[in-house]
Amino acid sequence: MDIRIGITNSAREINFESSQSAGDIEKIVSTALDAKSSYISLKDDKGKVYLIPTGALGYVEIGSDTSRRVGFVA
To answer: How far apart are CA 74 and CA 64, in angstroms?
Structure first.
């Protein structure tokens, strides 16, 4: 699952691959925002943990589970 997180007042974004499902990531982010938590915690495929302050979230883009095609389409 490809995750892109935009940070307010920053031109850069956080981009990583996660083994968590789209539903799990959406639930983590929405629960943290609804509960007014100070941060969210997400884990990537390699085991790194990202702690992102909820006040700095500009957007969270969750990619699809479908794999990309390789080669030419006839």
So the answer is: 23
* Three-state secondary-structure class, residue 46: coil
Whether the Cβ atoms of residue 17 and residue 2 lie closer than 8 Å to each other? yes
User: How far apart, in whole angstroms, are the C-alpha atoms of residue 48 and residue 64?
Assistant: 21
Beta bridge mates, 65: none
Express each pLDDT in 8-45 by its tens digit: 998 899 999 998 889 999 999 999 999 999 999 999 99
Return the DSSP state at 21.
-
CATH of the domain at 28: 2.30.30
Find the domain containing 24 and state its range.
Answer: 2-62
Helices of type H across the chain: 22-34
pTM for the predicted model, two decimal places: 0.77
- Give the H or E element holding residue 41: strand 39-43
